């Protein structure tokens, strides 16, 4: 997920924008939590992101950066070169195996 976390504060209430499960850049959910719970909720999101596929997350960041720097055509041109190596990773192979055997959301990623 790469996703964004945005914090807004109004008195004793804070709002955090979290990516809604499953982490998807296009499905956002506004979650309002008291300031006292903000750090805890941010850590929950951080743990979910950390448990995700690090190589795929890094590739996503590179594609987003290409779009930011070079526009949509630049990102489109770069995407295949950025994403293709992921298909040879141990993480992807294990994720597919786990998905087929146990269903979605059960894979563990190692960054290999």
Structure notes:
This protein is α+β, with helices and mostly antiparallel strands and 112 residues long. It starts with 5 loop residues before the first strand and ends in a 10-residue tail after the last helix. It is built from three helices and three strands; from the N terminus they run E-E-E-H-H-H. The protein folds into two domains: 6-50, no CATH class; 54-102, Lyase 2-enoyl-coa Hydratase, Chain  A, domain 2 (Orthogonal Bundle), CATH 1.10.12. A hairpin with an 8-residue loop joins strand 2 (13-19) and strand 3 (28-34). Helix content is 53%, strand content 17%.
Quick overview of this protein structure:
With 112 residues, this protein is of the alpha+beta class.
Architecture (CATH level 2) name of the largest domain? Orthogonal Bundle
Structural class: alpha+beta
Q: Spans with pLDDT under 50 lasting ≥5 residues?
A: 17-26
Distance between the termini: 18 Å
By CATH reckoning, the class of the largest domain would read Mainly Alpha
Supply the number of helical segments: 3
Main beta sheet: 3 strands, antiparallel
Strand content: 15-25%
Rounded to the nearest angstrom, the radius of gyration is 17 Å
What is the strand arrangement across the widest sheet? 1-2-3
Total domain count: 2
- Overall geometry: flat
The number of distinct β-strands equals 3
CATH topology heading of the largest domain: Lyase 2-enoyl-coa Hydratase, Chain  A, domain 2
Q: List SSEs in N-to-C order.
A: EEEHHH
Helix fraction, binned, reads 40-55%
| Mean pLDDT over the residues | 79
Helices and strands, with pairings:
Elements (H helix, E strand, L loop, with lengths): L5 E5 L2 E7 L8 E7 H16 L3 H30 L6 H13 L10
Antiparallel strand pairs: 1-2, 2-3
């Amino acid at each position: 997920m790469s996703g964004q976390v945005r914090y807004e504060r109004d008195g004793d209430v804070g709002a955090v924008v979290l990516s809604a499960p499953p982490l998807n850049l296009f499905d956002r959910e506004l979650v309002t939590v008291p300031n006292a719970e903000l750090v805890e909720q941010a850590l929950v999101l951080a743990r979910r992101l950390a448990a995700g596929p690090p190589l795929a997350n890094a590739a996503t960041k590179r594609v987003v950066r290409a779009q930011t720097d070079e526009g949509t055509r630049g990102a489109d041109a770069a995407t295949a070169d950025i994403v293709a190596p992921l298909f040879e990773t141990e993480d992807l192979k294990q994720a597919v195996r786990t998905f087929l055997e146990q269903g979605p959301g059960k894979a563990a990623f190692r960054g290999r």
